[in-house]
């Protein structure tokens, strides 16, 4: 029997991922044995430090690039930029949780390592170039998120949200695995580049094409569930409402970003030969998502649910950048992710400041007259709402402009038009919040509480949202260099 | 030797039963079992294709799927126990304070 050949492994390419996973594992032990109950904030600070180190470890890798694990994992500027976005998302969410968890009496140290594991899952999804690696990334992310969603147990809403998320997530995982099986049957491989290569061979038969169509359709459904694209978005409002708010914030940015980044890689690498077939489907999906998300948000008086629906709508805009499968589309996707991450996390942070223990203070009424009580909080929320609506001079405006231009240049003028119209609808419900804050008297006595974590969060998110809106050049330069490396 | 297409038809049937089970059945335990059926249908397809192509890749993937499925069910059952403690039911229709 010949000895098993172990493929060369270059762990350097995985540095940020390994740091996050290693640190999270160590942190679980440190938290259990060294950090006394009541002092669990220390765990949170350590988690923040870990993510900072991981982000810094990525910097020297910028010009390295390459693939390892027999081409299953790739490090390219695209995955590195996504890694930074995920670490930023994770860090801002952990900072929110530092204030949120004690206030709601659910402070347990495991929360922070779990967040880090979820971030690790997202990084795997950005770096994976093999269906199996993507599957493992999706599941590492999802399973930790099921736990985090139910973290506020025995609060019933939290348990219920976790159950719903788990059932639908597992359902989507079933589709994903079956899709992988069919694609494997059609092409004999699970590597993204290998799939495209197998399809372009002359021996690729009609039978293989049928399997491939069914398989890629199922994979698409699975990712639509994860990224909450309509009509697979039904779980989103319930799960966001029920889960602890920092987790909802984290999901609304992280899961979406990771699922769409993986989808981008699948579309540009594996399904490139079928681009003409899938493009109309994706166009329809994006259009429906934008319409359903924004109309759904329109009808909400609960701000947390409104943000959930708005995140569905934003997934539609982000999808627009992905489907054109051009360099410009990838840039638009990354730019949108950066600005959306900052804006949405900031908006959720303001929501947490208004949320008090034992009650769901997410009604529009709670925002009434906020300017009189907390002027800076109201101004920050205005920045976030303007950015989500795409009003200049915020990051959201540039991001929408970028995506619409990419779609238009990719020959999807009609879709860009749908995007513009739905943005106009969206402006109504975002600005409604702003009007309430400035023009109305407070309806009831509510004392917003701002701890250190939330303050830092809101300042960082608010300042960056404005700064990117006014001076987009550094981010544009970053995303222009963050191309997906083909092959590998 | 049984042709591969038979295995694929069987796995497709199992997958559909799983999908219907998730959509129709209301008991959370049965829903979990249906999800398992979906994943195992995929496993069957993977193994069948692997035999047809005489490559081990498909069989290796199955191990990953089994591992992930076990992790998923572990979390699911923990959640179910916690819900059962507070609501005394495993019926997912009765757990609906949130309205989509």
Short description:
The complex is a heterodimer of chains A (488) and B (100). With 488 residues, chain A is mostly helical.
C-alpha Rg of chain A (nearest Å): 22 Å
- Quote the beta fraction of chain B: under 5%
Oligomer: heterodimer
Broad CATH class of chain B: Mainly Alpha
The span between the termini of chain A is 30 Å
Mean pLDDT of chain B: 89
* Overall 3D form of chain B: elongated
What is the domain total for the residues of chain B? 1
Question: In the CATH hierarchy, what is the architecture of chain B at level 2?
Answer: Orthogonal Bundle
Written as H for each helix and E for each strand, in order along the chain, the element string of chain B is HHH
Find the count of extended strands of chain A (DSSP E, 2+ residues): 2
Query: What's the N-to-C terminus distance of chain B?
Result: 50 Å
Please, could you describe this protein's structure?
The complex is a heterodimer of chains A (488) and B (100). Chain A is an all-alpha fold and 488 residues long. Chain A has one domain (11-481). Chain A is built from 19 helices and two strands. In chain A, strands 1-2 form a two-stranded antiparallel sheet. In chain A, strand 1 (66-68) and strand 2 (73-75) form a beta hairpin. The longest helix of chain A has 32 residues, at 156-187. The two termini of chain A are 30 Å apart. With 100 residues, chain B is an all-alpha fold. Chain B has a single domain, classed as Helix Hairpins (Orthogonal Bundle). Helix content of chain B is 78%, strand content 0%. Chain B has three helices and no strands. In chain B, helix 1 packs antiparallel against helix 2 and helix 2 (28-53) packs antiparallel against helix 3. Chain B starts with a helix and ends in a 13-residue tail after the last helix. The mean pLDDT of chain B is 89.
């Amino acid at each position: 029997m010949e000895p098993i050949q172990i493929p060369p492994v270059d762990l350097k390419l995985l540095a940020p991922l390994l740091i996050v996973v290693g640190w999270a594992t160590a942190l679980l032990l440190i938290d259990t044995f060294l950090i006394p109950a009541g002092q669990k904030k220390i765990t949170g600070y350590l988690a923040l430090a870990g993510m900072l180190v991981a982000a810094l470890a990525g910097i020297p890798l910028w010009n390295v690039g390459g693939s390892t694990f027999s081409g299953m994992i790739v490090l390219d500027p695209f995955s590195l930029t996504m890694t930074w976005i995920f670490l930023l998302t994770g860090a801002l969410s952990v900072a929110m949780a530092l204030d949120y968890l004690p206030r709601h009496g659910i402070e347990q140290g495991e929360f922070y390592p779990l967040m880090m594991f979820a971030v690790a899952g997202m990084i795997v999804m950005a770096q994976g170039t093999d269906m199996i690696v993507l599957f493992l990334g999706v599941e590492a992310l999802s399973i930790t998120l099921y736990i985090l969603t139910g973290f506020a147990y025995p609060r019933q809403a939290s348990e219920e949200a976790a159950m719903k998320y788990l059932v639908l997530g597992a359902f989507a995982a079933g589709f994903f695995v079956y899709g992988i099986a069919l694609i494997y049957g059609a092409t004999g491989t699970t590597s993204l580049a290998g799939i495209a290569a197998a399809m372009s061979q002359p021996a690729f038969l009609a039978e293989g094409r049928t399997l491939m169509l069914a398989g890629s359709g199922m994979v698409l459904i699975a990712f639509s569930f994860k990224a909450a694209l309509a009509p697979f978005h039904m779980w989103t409002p319930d799960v966001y409402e029920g889960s602890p708010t920092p987790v909802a914030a984290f999901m609304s940015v992280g899961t979406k970003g990771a699922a769409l980044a993986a989808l981008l890689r699948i579309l540009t690498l594996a399904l490139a030969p079928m681009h003409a077939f899938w493009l109309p489907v994706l166009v329809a999906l994006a259009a429906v998502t934008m319409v359903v998300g924004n109309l759904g948000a329109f009808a909400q008086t609960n701000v947390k649910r409104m943000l959930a629906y708005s995140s569905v709508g934003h997934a539609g805009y982000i999808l627009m950048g992905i489907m054109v499968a051009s360099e410009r589309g990838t840039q638009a996707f990354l730019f949108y992710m950066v600005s959306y991450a900052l804006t949405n996390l900031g908006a959720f942070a303001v929501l947490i400041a208004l949320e008090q223990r034992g009650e769901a203070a997410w009604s529009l009424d709670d925002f009434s007259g906020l300017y009189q009580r907390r002027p800076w909080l109201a101004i920050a929320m205005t920045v976030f709402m303007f950015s989500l609506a795409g009003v200049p001079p915020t990051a959201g405006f540039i991001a929408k402009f970028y995506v619409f231009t990419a779609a238009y240049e990719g020959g999807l003028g009609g879709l860009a038009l749908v995007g513009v119209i739905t943005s106009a609808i969206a402006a109504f419900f975002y600005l409604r919040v702003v009007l309430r804050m400035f023009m109305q008297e407070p309806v009831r006595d509510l004392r917003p509480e701002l701890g250190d974590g939330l303050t830092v969060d809101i300042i960082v998110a608010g300042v960056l949202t404005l700064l990117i809106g006014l001076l987009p050049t550094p981010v544009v330069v970053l995303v222009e260099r963050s191309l997906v490396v083909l092959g590998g | 030797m049984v042709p591969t297409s038979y295995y694929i038809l069987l796995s497709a049937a199992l997958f559909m039963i799983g999908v219907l089970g998730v959509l129709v059945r209301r008991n959370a335990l049965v829903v979990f079992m249906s999800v398992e059926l979906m994943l195992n249908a995929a496993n069957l397809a993977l193994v069948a294709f692997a035999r047809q192509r005489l490559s081990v890749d498909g069989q290796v993937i199955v191990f990953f799927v089994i591992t992930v499925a076990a992790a998923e069910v572990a979390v699911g059952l923990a959640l179910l126990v916690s819900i059962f403690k507070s609501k005394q039911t495993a019926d997912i229709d009765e757990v609906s304070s949130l309205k989509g």
